[in-house]
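Sequence of Synaptotagmin-5 (Urochloa decumbens).
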Amino acid sequence: MGFIHTKAELKWLNQELVKIWPFVNEAASELIKTSVEPVFEQYKSFILASLHFSKLTLGTVAPQFTGVEILESDGSAITMELELQWDGNPNIVLDIQTTLGISLPVQVKNIGFTGVLRLVFKPLVAEIPCFGAVCCSLREKSKVEFTLKVIGGEMTAIPGISDAIEGTIRDTIEDTLTWPNRIIVPIVPGDYSDLELRPVGVLEVKLVEARDLTNKDLVGKSDPFAVLYIRPLREKTKKSKTINNDLNPIWNEHYEFEVEDISTQHLTIKVYDDEGLQPSEIIGCARVDLADVQPGKVKDFWLDLVKDLEIQRDKKPRGQVHLELLYYPYAKHEGVSNPFANQIQLTSLEKVLKTESNGYDINQRKNVIMRGVLSVTVISAEDLPPMDIGGKADPFVVLYLKKGETKKKTRVVTDTLNPIWNQTFDFVVEDALHDLLMVEVWDHDTFGKDYVGRCILTLTRVLLEGEFQDTFVLQGSKSGRLNLDFKWTPQPIYRDRERDQ
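Predicted 3D structure, token representation.
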């Protein structure tokens, strides 16, 4: 649905807003100052020690409403969306303290805002004004423009300070005001805790690897690490280990994130080059819409890294990052049962896998780890790159577990780019939730062997499905696909309690 009122039709509302704006300015300025400063602390970059307002007024220019729409509801609430623009003349000065001990007075100038304000009046009650509370938020990520200026100095005096301040401001606006986040304003006294943002499920994330990262170092290679979040709060942000001197790092790290709204939220990943004592330099970033993840199904992603998630001007390749996502709602959804019904101390993936039918004592299940036999059938490959003068290759496949020592190898199939092997190999896996299967394709040569490409695979999908067959793109190669079949035979054991304590 589009906005049903034009700017001309809203002239009366804008005229009234202009009249009361001096009073709104005074009240809102004080409210923003007292409520936003503590929020800054949750989103500030590690370069910034503190951010405080030394001056804050919203200026003399009132926002203009350009459209309004009343959305359909179930009868328990009224939702109104107001389209607005604001090219204001506020006087905002931030007192910035850096972690280097430097104090900077920074002016926020040239503010422009375009967005849609969502107001949800809920619950509807039988007394004036007929609703108990108002939920306020921005319907979606809004266009916010501003410039920063150091009073009496230059922003370039400290590398990275401008980006750190801008990032903190944008993260604060997005994560506190943008739907599904909301501010609840009680109108009639009552308990409105049910209107608060609540987790609806858990997203399991495996940060597997990255490849072909841009090198940020003049000597040697970048030392990449990754930062992941759904909400950019410090306590909800995950940071990987740093892999030194490697543009194709393998992290193999597992994280869990609470999800509040699967339809609108997204997972953000940013890959940095660790510069030691200096501020880390960003290599690239990417984003996954959680709406693309089907509950209870493993989804594999290769994401292209970009310079900026908002402005796609820079098209230079920055590498790719490999993620695996698995979302489970707390409530029953589309036939997916709630894996958290029994509050046992397992990772949520283990909770999915451990059911009453396994026959374990429910009180002992927290001591179970995922041990078993992984059977891998290397069926065939297609469209391998030519490796010899005749335009053919003599391919074979090497398989091994990242945490294991034993390597398995197929036979060599000569003079073909579309080999068929149909060979099965068994691996005893000690900790399947945290291991990786490495599948490498090589070209046999009279005097040795030449590397063609590889696939790095988690075991999550075979743990959940028991058996499956799929085609995988050969990474690091100009072309090529591998056809593989997987089967999992569990052999559960119990954790050593003394070791885990």
